[in-house]
């Protein structure tokens, strides 16, 4: 709650200041900044509520067959520089939560990494591995677990509330899987790997 209230105060303070400035000198640029602050606040409240709901729920409320490749293709289409490859696979789970997992990883790659962004689906054993990789510096070894903690941000001044990767791990574990930091030194790519059980 302390972390959540701190994160909520920042966009609220910007909104208060922006409204004061807009009243003195109304212009379109300031109005767009206010809209952006409202959108950020809306996303933050949504993430806090979702994290709280997942904490309180030990199992999935909705389980259906989900084509992970189709879901990933839809999310990749939201970005110009996102490449998808790999195997088609069906998993049992909540399509909305799995969409959120993929979206959070892609937004993280675009916000903190560097192009190209690559999504790879790979069958293996009893499940599937989803990789979301980019050409950025990646996560330092000492923070490979910390990045999944709620409200943790590398460097402290990075954009976002530090909830996106925490939600990714929560969603993966609710589906019987796991999310980890991944590095492909040969290809010079860094990112994340999510392992999920395939539908039997």
Task: Output the keywords.
200 residues; alpha+beta; two-stranded antiparallel ribbon; 45% helix
Describe the overall structure.
The chain has 200 residues and is α+β, with helices and mostly antiparallel strands. Helix content is 45%, strand content 22%.
Q: Element order, helices and strands?
A: HHEHEEHEEHEE
Work out the radius of gyration. 18 Å
**Ends: how far apart?**
40 Å
Overall average pLDDT: 88
Spans of at least 5 consecutive residues whose pLDDT stays below 50 are none
Q: Give the fraction of residues assigned to helices.
A: 40-55%
The helix-and-strand class reads: alpha+beta
**Beta strand count:** 7
| Main β-sheet description | 5 strands, mixed
Envelope shape: globular
**Tally the helices: what do you get?**
5
Instruction: Assess the beta-strand content as a share of residues.
Output: 15-25%
Strand sequence of the main sheet, in spatial order?
2-4-5-7-6
Q: What order do the helices and strands come in, and which of them pair?
A:
Layout: H1 2-24, H2 28-56, E1 64-67, H3 68-76, E2 82-86, E3 90-93, H4 95-112, E4 117-124, E5 127-134, H5 164-174, E6 178-184, E7 189-197
Helix pairs in contact: 1-2, 2-5, 3-4, 4-5
